[in-house]
Amino acid sequence: MTQAPSETEAVVLTTGTPDRRRRDDGRWAWALIAPTLLILAIVIGYPIVQAVRLAFQADEQLDPATGFFEEGGFAGGSNFVHWLMQDCGGGAGSCPPGTLGSEFWSAIGVTFFFTIVTVTLEVALGFWFATIMGKNLWGRSVIRASVLVPWAIPTAVTAKLWYFMFADNGIVNSVLGQQIPWMTGVWESRFAVIVADVWKTTPFVALLILAGLQMIPKDVYEAARMDGASRWQQFTRITLPLVRPALMVAILFRVLDALRMYDLPAIMQGASGGSPTTTMSILVTADMRQGNFNSASALSTLVFLVIFLVAFVMVKFLGANAVDQTRAGARPATKEKTS
Amino acid sequence: MTATSARNERATVHPPRRYRSENGWGTRLGAVVIVLFCLLPFYWMVVVAFRETAHTFDTTPWPTFVTLDNFTAALSTSAGNDFLAAIRNSLLISLCTTLVAVLLGISVAYALARLEFRGKNVVTGIVLGASMFPGVALVTPLFQLFSAPEVGWIGTYQALIVPNISFALPLTIYTLTSFLNDMPWELEEAARMDGATRGQAFRKVILPLALPAVFTTAILAFIASWNEYLLASQLSNRRTEPVTVAIARFAGDNPYIQPYATIMAAGTLVTIPLVVVVLIFQRPIVAGLTAGGVKS
Amino acid sequence: MMRSTKRIAVLALVAAVALTGCAGRSASDVDTTARGPITMAMGSNDAGKLAPVIEAWNAAHPDETVTMFELPKDADPARDTLVQSLQARSGDYDVMALDVVWTGEFAAHRWILPLEGDLAIDTSGLLPATVDSATYRETLYAAPMNTNAQLLFYRTDLVPTAPATWQDLLASCPTARAADVDCLDLQLKSYEGITVQATQAINSWGGSAVGPDGLTPTVTTPQATAAIQAVTDAYADGDIAGRSSGFTEEETNLAFLAGETMYAYNWPYMFDTAKTEPTSTVGDDFAVAPIVGPDGVGASTLGGYNNAINAYSEYPATARDFVAFVQNEDNQRAFADQSFPPVLASVYDDPELVAQYPYLPVLKDALEHAQPRPVTPFYSGVSKAIQDNAYAAITGARPVDQALADMQAAMTAAAS
């Protein structure tokens, strides 16, 4: 560890010149941040570097003479072309059905569909949950504990549980009095994954939003009521702007998570690709299972880029960057109402 | 009274015992709907867990053919399963992860929200970027890294804790930063003028106000770690495996039959510690979550 | 802190070397006479069946004990675990119980030692199809431990005798309709099960999935087309139950036990569940027969495990002795006793066992007609090509000819 400035030194420094102070700030900041960067470098940085490196190597080739695999050598961008152009060796679009290459765009479509639908539902429901959880209700603790339950059940069990409930002779069909093929129909199985995900993750969103709601001082509402604001106005003019940073963090994290969705569809529908719920992450594992580590690395790099783009757009244009708000400028305008 | 100073008045730890008339029937109904939404599937899991295997697909909505056999099966060590050990492992891993991730999260969030330094945006970018790489692509490189002879981490707890920390970090950092940004730092400033050190000022003034966020974040981090399966399945061994891996390994008598009832029993057992934790920490959590509110 | 950064850099190098240099060892630079304690890795659902075998071995060889390491229950994670450790060049798992379809891939990566020279084993008493499943490019790479073949289960209260051909089977379907049950249930969900069904049909109709070289796909031949067409027609007519498109072995088993189908294709374990599970409603009103093709007994697809020796093992000689020990008569008989079909042909004729397990002669008949799935180093890609396109053909999403042309192309792409 780098030596952090001692506390007495810090006190002296804070009363010093702004310049001295900034230097001191910098030293403190890096001392505080270093361990985090170290962990991220090991767990995330190293694999990313590896993936990018491998993405430009060809997968091993079978030597027809011996029947053994040999090194693939340098591949240039051919792994990326393989995915983006569905090139299985015969030019663009030469990947027939039944190859992973042919599923690239559908996997991206499915992933985005899941992301948009689940995040929308989770935020809408989560907001409603949070509003009710924030009220002084009798039995509030019961609600809090029960909201954590879906989230406390490991995803693997959640997947099995819903798989079991959605089975042909399961409880869902029995309650509905229908024979819906939840696990085999294309849209039915997608719907099943969405239901399981919304059930499991809404509490997470609700808690994040609730923590944001709790930061809003009550007297703001008192003042607004005195000014004759309606319930709806209070919601749109006070609640939404004030809770926005917390909400954006929740949405950003959910979107990043949903874009990497793996466990639920993999356990409910299988992870070898070819199912109507094949997401980008499932495609990566399916390709690794076929022993194509290098084209799988190219694919994970592409997935990373897709997610990065989405995050970039969200941070840049939707203001999902809670961190960027400087202390001075981030105060919501509604504050004036409260004076 | 400004929003800021309103928040400075320490909230009461106990929510007022006076229920507002604003809680109309709509709210009460909503509360019931929420509880049902969250608990019905869980209830079904418990019912099936207590049902004889022969009637696993019975759709009677209340407990029938009640038996403890599935729990016996889930806890039996005869088939090489050791579920209690797995629960211990999960608790250890998740608690360590939560502790470290929250501590690191507070440090980074403090640096980002409070300190002026170059490269702030780079740090935020890195933290956010870390949560974008598909987890499935981390497994192989990490396995190879940890199994290198110089490291020899496979089958140790740190092999599971370190990756879990890195998964929890973006969340803890982001959430805590967004809260610390809204803190009344002028108060901390004032405390420093009165001779408090940086650390004291933070502990005495800011931390109490940030507690709700810290608690919420800790819960989120704990559960995220508790649920991690993908990496654990590859980086753990018999001694260190967490519950998620143990459940996935549950086998029935033959490979083609899913032991649903056993899995449901295991799921029930896994959920109970968390509910217990929530109930034990009910008071600080509620206090934390309502600290933002003001005495009415 | 400085030291750990350095360490990471060193590690990155080590891992880079490990990743890029995946060349295995060939038999020539291995000491094939070394002996010592070894570990065996096997999926947790069947590992228990080896406990008595290992116990007996350890009692006789105190200096060369065998320890069981249980892999995850499901095939994919189990294979992942093995592949990862082999890529890290670890000799941790000296003996690996490979699902039959992994043999080609492990051999082509030089991860397992060919069983020749010091490591040769006697295969004369084994069922020939099991030896084929462990043979890659004319070389034996693993010792078959147990095998499996699908059987036709039929309800004796509805049909007194088993159908002799596919046409006979379809001709009896009106009986099932009259009884308001499915005629035939099998596994057509898009997973490994439909690969088994598709290759089973293709082989039964006299075709083959791949040519003699194990690589060139041959699924557009008239025989293969006729086979998939027959299954597709039966599915369209409802003779194969519509819900089979979502069935794995498990749903098939549940449906049969609930008395919801007259015929079912499944592995022999269903014999035990139908007899003993408390949920079973079929009691003794069922029997088994070999699966059927157009001219009689069909060619079932082989299942089971092959024991391979890790190329990085420290004690190959012990590993070799142990995999041979697993094949001895006592152990194979014990397998039969646990519905773990043996690879030793003689066990199937044992009157005592046959009295206890009446399906053994039928199973032997099925195994003598059985064919392994393609022994190819690209198995998962090939299987996926078969799965996706067979599912599309049988469920009517694409015409049979087109789906088979796609299958041919996808299998070719998988093996390039």
From TrEMBL, chain A:
Alphabetical GO biological process terms: transmembrane transport
Gene3D superfamilies in the cross-refs: MetI-like
Entry's localization field: Cell membrane; Membrane
CDD domains per the UniProt record, alphabetical: TM_PBP2
Pfam families linked to this entry: BPD_transp_1
InterPro entries, per the entry: MetI-like, MetI-like_sf, Sugar_ABC_transporter
Xref: SUPFAM superfamilies: MetI-like
Topology term for the membrane: Multi-pass membrane protein
Transmembrane segments: 28-49, 104-130, 142-165, 191-213, 234-256, 298-318
UniProtKB keywords: Membrane, Transmembrane, Transmembrane helix, Transport
Domain ABC transmembrane type-1: 108-314
Domain of life: Bacteria
Listed name of the protein: Sugar ABC transporter permease
Species annotation: Pseudoclavibacter chungangensis
Organism lineage: Bacteria, Bacillati, Actinomycetota, Actinomycetes, Micrococcales
UniProtKB/TrEMBL annotation, chain B:
Annotated TM spans: 25-46, 91-113, 125-146, 158-180, 201-226, 260-281
PROSITE patterns, per the entry: ABC_TM1 (PS50928)
GO biological process: transmembrane transport
Keyword annotations: Cell membrane, Membrane, Transmembrane, Transmembrane helix, Transport
Any one of the GO CC terms: plasma membrane
Gene3D superfamilies in the record: MetI-like
Highest taxon of the lineage: Bacteria
Pfam families associated with the record: BPD_transp_1
Coiled-coil annotated residue ranges, if any: none
Bilayer topology annotation: Multi-pass membrane protein
Subcellular localization(s) per the UniProt record: Cell membrane
Positions of the ABC transmembrane type-1 domain: 87-281
InterPro entries assigned: BP-dep_ABC_trans_perm, MetI-like, MetI-like_sf
Keyword Zinc in record: no
Keyword Magnesium: no
Main location: membrane
Family recorded in the similarity comment: Belongs to the binding-protein-dependent transport system permease family.
UniProt name for this protein: Carbohydrate ABC transporter permease
Organism: Pseudoclavibacter chungangensis
